[in-house]
Amino acid sequence: MINKIKQFFETHKTFAEIFRFLIVGTIATLVDMFMMGVAMYFIQREIYPSFINVFINTPTPSTFATIMGTAIGFICGLIVNYVLSILFVFNEKGKSKSTQGFIIFTVLSVIGLGLNMLGMYLCFDLMHINQWVSKIIVTIVVLIYNYVSKRLILFKNKK
Fold it and tell me: Which residues of 39-53 are buried (b: 16+ CB within 10 A; e: fewer)?
């Protein structure tokens, strides 16, 4: 069974890359959500009896705490994603390890951060969707944007 999976990924390189991207994305998302929780806890400590209450039996935080937590979590997750993408996800490094690559990565990331914060504002503040449900919805949208933009612009083949 393991040999069949390995053979599949060896013959279908794009699927293998997407699979690695999803694993790295999951790790980065966990970092993102944890750091969002840490930030929200410290910004609005008075509404949380303990840190675990940021995630379980959550009181409704302010928009400021949610947006700032989103930004801090996103930046932490982004750093993890960048490092792991270079190390494990993309075989073709493209321009990613150059100064120009870092600038491109930063611009693409700022766009992703903007999409993330806009999505959180729309879902949480305007549509009144729970902050964690909002986070999951927005994370899926930004994950797709991140893969496509990084793959097509930053980690593209040199051909």
Answer: bbbebbeebbeeeee
* DSSP one-letter string for 108-137: HHHHHHHHHHHHHIIIIIIS---HHHHHHH
Q: What mean pLDDT do residues 155-159 have? A: 67
Q: Which helix (H) or strand (E) element contains residue 103?
A: helix 99-120
Please name the helix (run of DSSP H) or strand (run of DSSP E) that holds residue 100, with its range, or none: helix 99-120
Band (pLDDT 50/70/90 cuts) for residue 51 is very high
| Distance, C-alpha 82 to centroid of its chain | 10
pTM of the model: 0.75
Residues 6+ apart with CB under 8 A from 86: 93, 96, 97
Mean pLDDT value across the chain: 86
Tokens 């990613």, located at residue: 96
CA angle 123, 114, 59 (to 5 degrees): 35
